[in-house]
Amino acid sequence: DETEFRNFIVWLEDQKIRHYKIEDRGNLRNIHSDDWPKSFEKYMKDVNCPFKIQERQETVDWLLGLAVRLEYGDNADKYKDSTPDGAKNTDNTAKNAEPLINLDVNNPDFKAGVMALANLLQIQRHDDYLVMLKVSLPERLTQDAIAKASQSKEGLPVALEKHILGFDTGDAVLNEAAQILRLLHIEELRELQTKINEAIVAVQAIIADPKTDHRLGKVGR
């Protein structure tokens, strides 16, 4: 909005930048004047703004930067020791190092997210969602599990869009993760079936009578 933009420029000059003396700000304050664009252009030159009057976004960013720099210069002692809110003391820092401390276990979104994750990873459910995260989930992150997952396997690339998931989680990233988990699960089932078949063949080889010839329909000599 043009009026808001002009008021914004006047506010910056009056409250933060203060490049002009108060008596010299009349033309800039007259935001309803047809000559205001010329006054603003002159103001930009006076404060050495490197952008043109048509480059509004760049001009606003530059003027805000100038205002912040001047504000800091006027109150350097006040701001020099300021720290981010999350690092005001070591206690806060320690708390931030443990993400679970800041979780609201009663938040419906949190519960829904944990349940969706548990379903995808086939984790046993627990009444306490926090316990489910801190106890059940690490079971999937044991050294053996990590080592197994880290083993490189050569294979052909898979186009996920060609595999129908069968349900929608409402999140594209979660859908893709579910597709990957399902494909990995199918691969594990195939490996298990292969091992079962090998075991059956091995057992048959041990207990089979070498005198048996099924092709002739005879047993023994």
TrEMBL record:
Pfam families per the UniProt record, alphabetical: RLL
Family recorded in the similarity comment: Belongs to the RTRAF family.
Protein name: RNA transcription, translation and transport factor protein
Species this chain originates from: Baryphthengus martii (Rufous motmot)
